[in-house]
Structure formats: C-alpha cells, structure tokens
Specification:
Order of helices and strands: EEHEEEEHEHHHHHH
Strand content: 5-15%
Number of strands: 7
Helix content: 25-40%
Largest sheet: 3 strands, antiparallel
Shape: elongated
Radius of gyration: 26 Å
Length: 221
C-alpha cells in the first residue's frame, strides 16, 4: 500500500480534518490534531517487493547490524491484508477492527537468512519445486533465531579487541604489537568469512580460544 488517499482529490483534508487546540499554557504552543473520516488505500502488489527488496539485505559482519539497502523504496505506511482484497475503504476505526488487516514489522534476521537461502541453488533444491518460495519461507520460520531488535551478543569480538590493541600499541613493545597484529588478522579472517546464516552464531565461540591465548601471552609478557 503506497499511500493514503481521501475522497476529495482536489483538497484532500478540506472535509477530513478538524483542529483541536490545547488549553495547556506550559509552552504556549497549540497542538493540532487531524481526524480522518474516511481512508482509501491502494494496492501495490508484489512486484515492488520482488524488484527492489529481494537480495538487498546485508549483515555487517563486525557490528551484527542488518540493513536493507533499498529501504528508500519502502512507503511510509504499510498494511497487509490477509484476505487479499484489492481495495480497502473505511474509517481508521473500521480498519483497526478488521481482523484481516495488520501492520507488518520486519524480522531483520530472518529476512537476511531468507535472502541468502533463496539465492543459493543448493538450498532451493531441498524445497518442493512447485512451491519453492512459500516452502522456503516456512523453512526460515522454523529456524531458531533471535527476532528481537537488539544487538546484544551479535557483534564480533573484533569491536572490543580493536580498542585493546590501541593501548597495546602505546607500550612500544615489538613482541606485544606483533601478537596483537597476528591475532587481529586471524580474528578479521574468521569474522568476515563466517558471516553466513549457518556460521554467524558461532563466531564468538570460535574466537574464544584465540582471544584467551592472545590475552595470556600479553599478560605473561
């Protein structure tokens, strides 16, 4: 749904808005509220999603943040109608009470995994060819994944390690600096090569022995 239209195309808000002014004199600013009597929503269809969004989701291997590169094509307000109606007309209250309409929230982690799997022929081969896309979506929804939009535990240890080696460089010790550089190179290799749906959850665990060995060497030095 690309935009919200009103009955009067020439003056969209002439019959739909009413101004309500606040009596509060705290900041001497009037607050204006707009009441929409009737909303008409247009259907965009699936072509926009397939042409602009598919394959555009990337995951930063260091910070763990997932970004959709083509989100500038995303309309400001989206609704999903499970019933599949071509037009939705009614007041905001009527649309709110409709059990088939909801506002979607993107599960970024699963979206990234889906885009990775959908472009992998070996993954598509495991799904029924007659229903490959829906079958792939069902497969992604069955995965164990953190859907909450938090970054705790997703970032690579490389972030904090770079802060540590900046202090080590100030010591002027060639051995310590060499240990830090070798450890940094290995951590970068593991972090960037394991940024895949199958391995991204294990990066912190796999880097733990390397960090312990480097930390022990630095302390003993």
């Amino acid at each position: 749904l690309q935009d919200l239209l009103f009955e009067d195309d020439r003056n969209p808000l002439s019959d739909a808005e009413s101004a309500v002014y606040s009596d509060s004199g705290e900041d001497d600013l009037d607050l204006v509220a707009v009441t929409i009597e009737k909303v008409k929503c247009r259907r965009v269809g699936t072509s926009m999603g397939l042409s602009h969004f598919f394959g555009s989701t990337t995951r930063n291997s260091v910070t763990g943040r997932i970004v959709m590169k083509e989100d500038r094509y995303l309309p400001g307000f989206l609704l999903v109608d499970i019933f599949g109606r071509r037009r939705l007309v009614g007041s905001p209250r009527q649309l709110w009470e409709d059990h088939y309409i909801f506002r979607p929230y993107v599960m970024a982690n699963r979206t990234w995994i889906y885009h990775k799997y959908a472009k992998d022929p070996s993954k598509l081969a495991t799904v029924n060819a007659k229903d490959s896309m829906n079958g792939m979506i069902k497969k992604i929804l069955e995965l164990q994944c953190v859907d909450v939009d938090i970054n705790s535990g997703r970032h690579s240890p490389l972030m904090l390690w770079m802060v540590c080696i900046s202090f080590i460089a100030c010591t002027g010790d060639a051995v310590l600096v060499s240990i830090s550089l070798v450890t940094t190179a290995l951590m970068c290799f593991v972090t960037y090569t394991h940024n895949t749906p199958e391995k991204y959850n294990w990066v912190r665990l796999w880097l733990l022995p390397l960090r312990l060995a480097a930390g022990t060497g630095i302390v003993l030095r």
